[in-house]
Every structure is written in C-alpha cells, then in structure tokens.
Amino acid sequence: MLTEKELQHVANLARIKLNKDEAKKFPKELGSILDFINQLNKVDTSKVDPAHQITGLINSFRTDEYRKDFLPAEASAKEGEMNEDLNDKLVGQAPSRQNRFIKVKSVLRKS
C-alpha cells in the first residue's frame, strides 16, 4: 500500500486531482498494481528477444517512381499557364471544387 505522500506524488505526475474519497481508495488499488509490476520485473527475460514489431513486415512502402500520371499536353499549354486537361485531372480529384478551383473551408474568421 502506498503512503499519502507517494500517492500525491503519482497523482502530480499524472496531473490528476484526487478528492478525499479517492485519496482513501487509490492507495490500496495503486499499491496492488505496483506490486504486480514488481512481480513482472522479477521474471527472467534474458533469453527473450525484444518484440520491436510483430507483423514481420520489413518495408511496406512502394518505391517512389515517376508514373507519368499527369502529363501536360505541350501543344495547348501557353508559357506560364496550366494546361486545361492537367488542371481537370488535378482539381477533379478534390472532394469539393468550384469551377477550376479546389474549394476549402474558410480558415479566417471575421472579428
């Protein structure tokens, strides 16, 4: 069982405020949890490999390759302007759009 000082220390670390009823109830409960952790700490795990991950996957990412998904049509694009086909492909993927623009929620509020 924990002392009142130890309980307050743990509560401060966890940023928990305890009322009087909780301060009476938790020393026994938290003490039993800490006793169980002490039992686990006594178990010999020296021959157990650490389990960093258990899926067996080593690298599940695809290689970053240029797939030529959005090729501009060179003949119709003017210098400095985006091709309409390319714009349709890119903006067409957006969940919400207006004309040839992506529509997003407002991030600025009026004061």
Describe it for me?
With 111 residues, this protein is mainly alpha-helical. Among the domains are: 4-41, Histone, subunit A (Orthogonal Bundle); 69-104, no CATH class. The protein has helices at 4-13, 20-41, 84-91, and strands at residues 97-98, 101-102. The chain has a two-stranded antiparallel ribbon. The longest helix is centred in the N-terminal third of the chain and has 22 residues, at 20-41. It is elongated.
Tally of separate helices:
3
Mean pLDDT: 81
CATH topology (fold) name of the domain at 4-41: Histone, subunit A
Work out the helicity level.
Answer: 25-40%
DSSP E strands, number = 2
Structural class: mainly alpha
The N- to C-terminal Cα distance equals 55 Å
Rg, please?
30 Å
SS strand fraction: under 5%
